[in-house]
Specification:
Ubiquitin-like (UB roll); Alpha-Beta Plaits; 6 helices
């Protein structure tokens, strides 16, 4: 019988202070364990890591000041990490501005107004205007489902819906097709959501999505509140069984 592999403890510096963590943990894990704020949009506990939004960028001084996503970068012995600097903050604000310029994120007419993670991050990071021209893409709004609506104009391609449908519900209704500005969320093989043979109508994708791209039908402006508690519960039950 093979003995279980022991996890090695690594020591690192974050913002000048010493911290430690297991080698399989990421910089984001260590930051959250020690109440250090790092913005994220695609990452959520209970789902696999996607590294899609890049908002959790940190600077590793021992790697020639390279910028890396904290959610996908595992801790290493002796590394020195900066979580906040003028350079990092400028990059994060630019990423947010590009997200706003690429889609339709007019908060005043969104059902998730006041309950939107993108909106909250813009406020927290001091993004009060967008320097880039709005691309104004016209994307298809899918209202074929009897309970939910998909507004691709508000999608930020965080892939939370793809992961929760695959990893938690086991249906894998959602996927991403295309590249760059042409990338978009699709159900099944690019068929209308209401015609999906795989969708279980569970609503997990709607409740896990950070912005107003996936919402319940009949929600008025500011009424759509997302509920993430189910994901934490499922993750805890899985860990308990293991």
């Amino acid at each position: 019988m093979t003995a279980p592999t022991r996890s090695h403890i690594k020591t690192l510096k974050i913002d000048g202070k010493d911290y430690s963590g297991h080698e399989e943990e990421t910089i984001l894990d260590i930051a959250r364990q020690n109440d250090l704020f790092l913005p994220t949009l695609c990452q959520i506990d209970g789902l696999s890591v996607a590294g899609a939004c890049r908002l959790c960028l940190v600077e590793v001084k021992t790697w020639n000041n390279r910028l890396v996503p904290a959610c996908t970068t595992h801790v290493e012995e002796g590394i020195e990490v900066l979580t906040h600097s003028e350079r990092i903050d400028n990059y994060r604000r630019m990423i947010l501005e590009l997200l706003f310029s690429e889609g339709n994120h007019v908060c005043a007419v969104c059902v998730s107004n006041g309950n939107c993670e993108l909106q909250a991050l813009a406020q927290k990071l001091g993004m009060d205007h967008v320097r880039f021209p709005n691309l104004r893409p016209v994307r298809v709004v899918d209202m074929t489902h009897d309970r939910f609506v998909l507004d691709r104009n508000r999608c930020v391609l965080c892939a939370r819906c793809v992961r929760v449908c695959d990893e938690i519900e086991g249906a894998h209704t959602w996927d991403i097709t295309g590249r760059g500005i042409d990338a978009r969320i699709i159900s099944d093989l690019d068929t209308p959501w209401g015609s999906s043979d795989t969708c279980t109508r569970c609503g997990k994708c709607v409740n896990i999505y950070p912005v107003g791209a996936l919402v319940e039908k009949g929600s008025a402006i500011g009424e759509m509140v997302k509920h993430h508690d189910f994901l934490e519960y499922i993750a805890e039950m899985r860990e308990a069984r293991e």
